[in-house]
Amino acid sequence: MDDSLKGVLPDEELLRFYEQMVLCREFEESCAEQYAKGEITGFLHLYSGQEAVAVGCTAALEQKDYILSAYRDHAQAIVRGADPNRVMAELFGRATGICKGKGGSMHLFSPEHNFMGGYAIVGGQFPIAVGLAFASAVRREDRVTVCFFGDGAMNQGTFHESLNWARLWELPVLFVCENNFYGIGTEVHRASAEAVLHRRTCGYDIPSEKVDGMDVIAMYQATKRAAAWVRERQRPYFIEAVTYRFRGHSMADPAKYRSSSEHEIWKSRDPIPNLARRLVAEGIAGEVLLEEVHSRCVAQVQEAVRFASESPWPDDQEIWEDIYV
């Protein structure tokens, strides 16, 4: 396979991929700092290391397509178009948050961007995704529903039920498994009889493939093909994105179940510096430009923290608003 970036995408798009990944990384690392300071409380699951999946996948979609995620959802929301200021304010629990401070880290939601939510319950997004795709099919909309989830969620009953119905009803769903090899601290081979996860979809007659989730270009190209296939045939497809989280499952997890050598091997495949090296090597960008991009992202995240910290807390009466049942 030709590893050259030339002709794959316009230079501006490649630089946008780089900037989006840097922004997501800086946002997540800042979240870790704010959590340590007590500004962010509750559960916090960071996406550092997995940025290529969110950036590559989302870039390959149309804005009208739906996206759903799990509890590690900050990057998907931001890349989809959500304001980092409002996302950070949500994590701070402030009234200016994307969900008025009521959702927190695990329940981001931005319908104006067709980001239909992060879900704290493992596997909770599967039936919602299938339901959205069913609605799109009934309305004859040219829309793909993309459902992100982790490897651990594949052992939930909702996963099997949802894949079955998606295939039986021929629904336009693209399932994207972010296989980072650990469900909290349990390795895939200790939880799944078939550790090559994409093979598990054959029982539902759903085509699948495994993609390098540390390569943003590979993720973009695979998603572009898969989304086009789903849109044309109005049938589900499955991508297993092999990736790695650089931090523990959550901020409460020191990740001592992983060896330092394993961690270093995956750090060497960090999608951000690897793309940077390719951009420089092929003359698409220079070191100075990439440093400017990095500085711009740092400033953007600092502004998000300032915005969140200076935002008001929700009014007490807000507890009675947005109640539907």
From TrEMBL:
Gene3D superfamilies: 3.40.50.970. It catalyses: N(6)-[(R)-lipoyl]-L-lysyl-[protein] + pyruvate + H(+) = N(6)-[(R)-S(8)-acetyldihydrolipoyl]-L-lysyl-[protein] + CO2. Residues 20-314 form the Dehydrogenase E1 component domain. One of its GO terms (molecular function) is pyruvate dehydrogenase (acetyl-transferring) activity. GO terms for biological process: pyruvate decarboxylation to acetyl-CoA. Keywords: Oxidoreductase, Pyruvate, Thiamine pyrophosphate. Its EC number is 1.2.4.1. The keyword Membrane does not apply. The keyword Ribonucleoprotein does not apply. The pyruvate dehydrogenase complex catalyzes the overall conversion of pyruvate to acetyl-CoA and CO(2). NCBIfam families: PDH_E1_alph_y (TIGR03182). Heterodimer of an alpha and a beta chain. This is Pyruvate dehydrogenase E1 component subunit alpha. It comes from Geomonas silvestris. The lineage of its organism: Bacteria, Pseudomonadati, Thermodesulfobacteriota, Desulfuromonadia, Geobacterales. The gene is pdhA.
